[in-house]
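Duplicate of #3305? Posting structure anyway:
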């Protein structure tokens, strides 16, 4: 990133940070100037603030801008700062550009000045004007003082050929004099605006309702860790890897055998290095490599003469995979060296990473082998000695000698292919762009491909020959995703080709290697009529996510793994956008709240699973743990909140700027935030409603979400003023942590309508007030849970039961999700939650059913032994039956959504033994057994499960044989779901025996079978088997992360003290194996969840069954009266409060909050007590301030005036002639005079007030509500 220029005579170091774009992404002069002029200096200085000894940020040069060079000196010139300013230009014509040099000397005494005195010293500024036509490079200088000796330095400024030869102090004085004159003239012009400035100063300085003193968030953004063995030193940098491999892969084991060399690789590495600081030790990463020390050598790059000798080569202990090369003499700074090594590597197993092997069965029944790589996160070191960290980007030139008959793929296009000797071929690849080692990719196989092209890019999908015909969808998705992402980012895909390779085995779903995406083969093939629409969508999602990584992760790479959330979060959110575009759909966008936010909540609300998005990594082992739901899903949810905060357009422009600035480089999260902030500052279309009205930056906003664990619960409670609610925040954990955490966030409370999008900020310093009747975050963009007060919940339930479409789909899903979770945490009665769910028979959308079902299934599992459990099962079935009848009616159009809902309805209703569903399943299964019968793919899983659960041993054997004869992986997964649904103990034992004893059984879908196994009705038998045969179980799996998944599902259903005691006994009996798998600590965490289950069974069961008993009594009473009128409407919904604050819930969406909008003066006047304002500033001053706002208003004061409202809530709708029915024409002053007397207001007349149009008015209005609203009660 930078380099140092030492000078022995003056003993100073100038650090120059190069901000040039990569050659592929040139930047225009105008754009670069806008970015650099205002923000670059402060951004760079902030990033370097943690360096010791930095005295000043000297300057930044830009085209057509005045560049100031500050020299901070005390009055006695006690210290000296040496300056170096470099400005490179490209002339417009081909002729060489001459330059002139201006020299200025400074001298200072050598001693006697402290750093504090230097900071307090005065500053002298020398201005120089740079005029050039094109700027290709701009540099920022940071001065680090090494001594305080009196020296004289020279500052040279290169100017364009058209400038005069030299710049003198006299000329600088003239310029300064001209600036002073201009300044005096500006003062004269601006003097009349002084009163306005005073008013705006009051805007900034007025205190809030609560003390604004905030404690800074504890964070550590430094990528350098205390343990030097975790990170490599930066004394030497890699520039280029030249790697030659010979792979001994017997891809046809029956015909090919290399003897003892089978499944090994011979490697030869030539690594070009740049020395930055003198060192006689080289540190690299290497793991499971056999290095030939005698052939390891290093020499200067520019000459083939011997350099330093390698006198020692050893692997360091500590588990950090470090290889230390000791040299007989030090490398010289600024010189390039070549390191040459010969070594041997192994072709390992899929779960190990590096270069691993897999197998598949050809069409003629032959077992064939292939080899592929999985380097992320830390496994490139298994293939070659390297600098295996994301920040050490370098180029790669790869050549591979491989068995004849196989094809080799790598990141770059194939440059040359030839046969070198009998039975061997050689593939040489072009040089890659600069990239991280974890993106290096290689495959050796006899797979075939289908090919297409998009613009200049060749696109190929590689699979085993028998599945080649099913890759058309993958090709189409790839082309459409590239098209969307190129347009969104404004940067073309930078490589010549994109290969997508389908691997039978992969420890992750897919991997974003640059130019060679790896994916599980089942995620690349799709056949219409054989696979469900949901499975097609999954293929699209996987590919779109990995293609999004071609920009986020590959083109711009995180600097260290603590910013992994940046890579994965953006790939997740951009992958969803690209997937919807690829399928010309909006289904994913409509479910982002569930797919990202809700799924992230389920991990982030459990204390022992939650972690911050970015936190310090203490060991190499912790890197792999970063790849979890929080890193992927919480990151996407938080970024979606940021997108809503800054605005869609600003978000897109900021990402474009970020990608251009850091292309082919590394970046940190603050670099992204700087790019977004700079884009907002320099754009005329910035979102003023969100960040423009607050006194903190986008970076400060994001820090509270990036460096803190968990998320807030926004609770709303009644205020003394009936028209307001008090919104406050606290950290939410479903399982309370041992010690309470005072974490607080900068929370944007969104109010979205079709006419306006407003944001109210809930900050760390205390609560704010919001109007009663306005739903927060109706489109579910915020990463927080919301708990309304009981009165609001009742009004919402009334709306849901009478006309649920008045509330947005995302809000309906959010209400159910938050209410169920909060109730399970003991903070909300279950009766209210289940009452809310009673509207579902009228629901037509899929998302609320999905949320509801996830929660009730867990309740059913925990209460399975309760004597009244059948009553709850009947309640859930009644909520789902209308959906089943609706989706299977003849007039329902067939599309992706209806297919998904049909699949969901079949699975759930058959599970409840709903007669129409069971009959449909058994009939279809019988037809499938007797003759060929095409069952719709989305229904097969439910049909198999129902038939096996209710069928015979013959049915089980039929479906088992079908599994081993099946070609399609997706169909095998559905059959597995059926097999594990059996209730027969004998059949359970046969499954367990096949799974754990015969390792060949279910080998192709080992982990898929395991997950289905632990989710099945035979879970009790599996637990019993685990307890007595854990050694066999552990030897079969041997992977801690997979074992954690198994233990999670096994303990999820435990809900009694007896079962907790059984878990304790299990731990004692298998302590050694559990310790070896690093699972003892995890079992302690699971005990907390079991304790919560026990508490829920004791508390929640009473509430649930009391509600169900009352519901049964209410239904019985309704039969004697008029069921149509009262059966589904609670008593408190029969009379509706006609106050504006209460009745909004019934019509807030259709009115679009037009009569209750934040951008109305009436709300501002009604929501702020004049009596409170008198304690802060004189009332007259505040009246003047408001009058000034009105004068700025483009639309003026509404002529209809403020609604004359009653001071108490009416008992019935007010007549037109009443106080609230009349509309008085009042002026500004008369309204202000009646402000104190008329605190409440209503809009019973239904007339829309005219909104304030001026942005300043809106910002001041929100500011006033945020600052003074909380003191109204």
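Output from current build:
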């Amino acid at each position: 990133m930078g380099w140092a220029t030492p000078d022995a005579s003056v003993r100073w170091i100038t650090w120059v940070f190069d901000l040039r774009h990569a050659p592929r992404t040139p930047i225009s002069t105008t754009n670069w100037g806008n970015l650099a002029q205002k923000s670059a200096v402060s951004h760079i200085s902030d990033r370097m603030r943690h360096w010791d000894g930095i005295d000043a940020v000297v300057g930044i040069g830009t085209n057509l801008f005045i560049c100031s060079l500050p020299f901070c000196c005390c009055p006695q010139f006690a210290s000296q700062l040496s300056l170096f300013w470099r400005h490179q230009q490209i002339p417009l014509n081909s002729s060489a550009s001459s330059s002139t040099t201006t020299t200025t000397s400074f001298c200072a005494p050598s001693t006697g000045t402290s750093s504090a005195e230097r900071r307090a010293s005065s500053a002298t500024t020398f201005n120089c004007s740079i005029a050039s036509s094109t700027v290709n490079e701009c540099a920022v200088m940071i001065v680090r003082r090494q001594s305080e000796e009196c020296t004289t330095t020279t500052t040279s400024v290169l100017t364009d050929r058209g400038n005069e030869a030299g710049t003198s102090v006299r000329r600088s004085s003239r310029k300064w004099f001209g600036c002073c004159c201009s300044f005096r003239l500006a003062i004269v012009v601006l003097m009349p605006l002084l009163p306005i400035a005073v008013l705006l100063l009051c805007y900034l300085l007025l205190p809030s309702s609560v003390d604004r003193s905030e404690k800074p968030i504890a964070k550590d953004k430094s990528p350098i860790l205390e343990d030097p063995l975790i990170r490599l030193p930066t004394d030497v940098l890699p520039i280029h890897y030249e790697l030659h491999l010979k792979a001994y892969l017997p891809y046809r084991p029956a015909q090919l055998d290399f003897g003892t060399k089978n499944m090994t690789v011979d490697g030869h590495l030539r690594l070009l290095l740049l020395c930055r600081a003198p060192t006689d030790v080289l540190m690299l990463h290497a793991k499971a490599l056999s290095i030939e020390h005698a052939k390891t050598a290093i020499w200067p790059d520019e000459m083939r003469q011997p350099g330093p000798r390698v006198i020692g080569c050893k692997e360091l202990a500590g588990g950090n995979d470090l290889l230390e090369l000791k040299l007989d003499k030090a490398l010289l700074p600024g010189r390039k060296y070549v390191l040459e090594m010969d070594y041997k590597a192994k072709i390992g197993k899929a779960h190990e990473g590096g270069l691993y092997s897999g197998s598949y069965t050809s069409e003629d029944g032959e077992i064939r082998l292939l080899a592929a790589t999985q380097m992320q996160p830390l496994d490139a070191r298994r293939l070659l000695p390297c600098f295996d960290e994301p920040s050490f980007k370098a180029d790669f030139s790869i050549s591979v000698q491989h068995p004849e008959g196989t094809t080799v793929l790598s990141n770059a296009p194939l440059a040359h292919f030839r046969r070198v000797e009998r039975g061997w071929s050689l593939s040489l690849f072009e040089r890659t762009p600069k990239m991280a080692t974890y993106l290096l990719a290689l495959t050796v196989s006899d797979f075939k491909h289908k090919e297409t092209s998009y613009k200049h890019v060749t696109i190929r999908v590689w699979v085993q020959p028998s599945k080649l015909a099913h890759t058309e969808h993958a090709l189409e998705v790839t082309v459409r995703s590239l098209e969307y992402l190129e347009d969104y980012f404004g940067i073309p895909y930078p490589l010549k080709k994109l290969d997508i390779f389908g691997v039978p085995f992969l420890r992750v779903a897919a991997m974003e290697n640059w130019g060679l995406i790896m994916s599980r083969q089942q995620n690349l093939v799709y056949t219409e009529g054989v696979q469900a629409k949901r499975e097609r969508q999954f293929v699209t999602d996987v590919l779109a996510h990995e293609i999004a990584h071609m920009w986020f992760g590959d083109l711009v790479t995180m600097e260290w793994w603590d910013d992994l959330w940046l890579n994965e979060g953006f790939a997740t959110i951009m992958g969803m956008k690209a997937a919807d575009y690829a399928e010309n759909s909006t289904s994913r966008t409509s479910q982002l709240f569930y797919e990202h936010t809700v799924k992230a909540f389920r991990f982030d609300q459990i204390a022992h699973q939650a972690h911050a998005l970015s936190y310090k990594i203490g060991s190499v082992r912790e890197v792999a743990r970063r790849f979890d739901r929080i890193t992927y899903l919480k990151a996407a949810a938080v970024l979606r909140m940021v997108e809503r905060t800054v605005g869609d357009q600003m978000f897109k422009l900021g990402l474009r700027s970020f990608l251009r600035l850091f292309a082919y480089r590394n970046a940190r999260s603050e670099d992204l935030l700087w790019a977004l902030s700079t884009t907002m500052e320099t754009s005329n279309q910035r979102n003023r409603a969100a960040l423009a009205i607050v006194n903190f930056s986008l970076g400060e906003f994001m820090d509270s979400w990036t460096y803190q664990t968990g998320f807030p619960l926004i609770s709303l409670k009644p205020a003394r003023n009936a028209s307001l609610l008090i919104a406050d925040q606290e950290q939410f954990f479903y399982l309370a942590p041992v010690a309470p955490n005072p974490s607080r966030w900068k929370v944007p409370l969104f109010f979205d309508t079709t006419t306006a999008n407003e944001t109210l900020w809930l900050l760390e310093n205390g609560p704010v007030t919001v109007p009663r009747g306005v739903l927060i975050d109706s489109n579910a963009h915020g990463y927080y849970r919301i708990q309304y007060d009981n009165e609001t919940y009742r009004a919402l339930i009334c709306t849901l039961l009478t006309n649920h479409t008045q509330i947005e789909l995302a809000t309906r899903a959010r209400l159910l999700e938050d209410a169920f979770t909060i109730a399970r945490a003991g903070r909300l009665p279950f009766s209210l939650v289940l009452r809310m769910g009673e509207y579902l028979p009228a629901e037509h959308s899929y998302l609320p059913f999905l949320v509801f079902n996830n929660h009730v299934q867990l309740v059913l599992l925990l209460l399975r032994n309760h004597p009244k459990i059948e009553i709850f099962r009947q309640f859930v079935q009644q909520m789902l039956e209308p959906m089943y009848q609706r989706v299977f009616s003849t007039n329902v159009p067939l599309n992706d959504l209806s297919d998904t809902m049909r699949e969901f309805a079949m699975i759930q209703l058959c599970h409840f033994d709903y007669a129409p569903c069971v009959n449909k399943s058994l009939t279809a299964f019988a037809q499938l057994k007797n003759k060929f019968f095409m069952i719709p793919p989305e229904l097969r899983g439910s049909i198999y499960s129902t038939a096996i659960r209710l069928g015979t041993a013959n049915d089980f054997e039929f479906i088992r044989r079908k599994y081993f004869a099946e070609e399609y992986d997706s169909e095998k997964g559905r059959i597995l779901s059926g097999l594990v649904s059996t209730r027969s103990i004998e059949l359970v034992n046969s499954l367990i025996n096949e799974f754990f004893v015969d390792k060949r059984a279910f080998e192709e879908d080992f982990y898929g079978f395991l997950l289905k196994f632990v989710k099945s009705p035979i879970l009790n038998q599996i637990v019993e088997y685990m307890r007595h045969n854990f050694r066999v179980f552990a030897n079969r799996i041997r992977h801690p992360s997979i074992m954690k998944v198994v233990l999670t599902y096994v303990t999820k259903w435990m809900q009694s003290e007896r079962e907790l005691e059984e878990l304790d006994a299990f731990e004692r009996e298998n302590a050694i194996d559990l310790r070896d798998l690093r699972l003892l600590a995890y079992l302690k965490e699971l005990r907390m969840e079991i304790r919560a289950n026990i508490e829920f069974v004791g508390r929640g069961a009473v509430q649930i069954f009391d509600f169900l008993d009352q519901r049964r009594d209410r239904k019985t009473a309704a039969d004697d009266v008029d069921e149509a009128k009262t059966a589904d409407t609670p008593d408190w919904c029969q009379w509706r409060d006609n106050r504006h604050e209460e009745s909004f819930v019934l019509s807030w969406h259709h009115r679009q909050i037009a009569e209750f909008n934040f951008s109305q003066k009436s709300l501002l006047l009604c929501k702020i007590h004049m009596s409170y304002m008198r304690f802060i500033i004189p009332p007259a001053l505040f009246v003047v301030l408001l009058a000034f706002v009105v004068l700025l208003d483009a639309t003026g004061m509404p002529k209809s005036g403020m609604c004359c409202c009653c001071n108490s809530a009416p008992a019935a709708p007010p007549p037109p002639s009443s106080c609230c029915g009349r509309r008085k024409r009042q002026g500004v002053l008369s309204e202000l005079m009646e402000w104190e007397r008329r605190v409440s207001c209503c809009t019973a007349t239904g007339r829309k007030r005219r909104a304030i149009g001026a942005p300043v008015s809106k910002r001041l209005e929100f500011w006033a509500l945020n600052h003074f609203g909380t003191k109204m009660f």
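Confirmed duplicate; merging threads. DSSP finds 40 helices and 36 strands in the chain. The radius of gyration is 35 Å.
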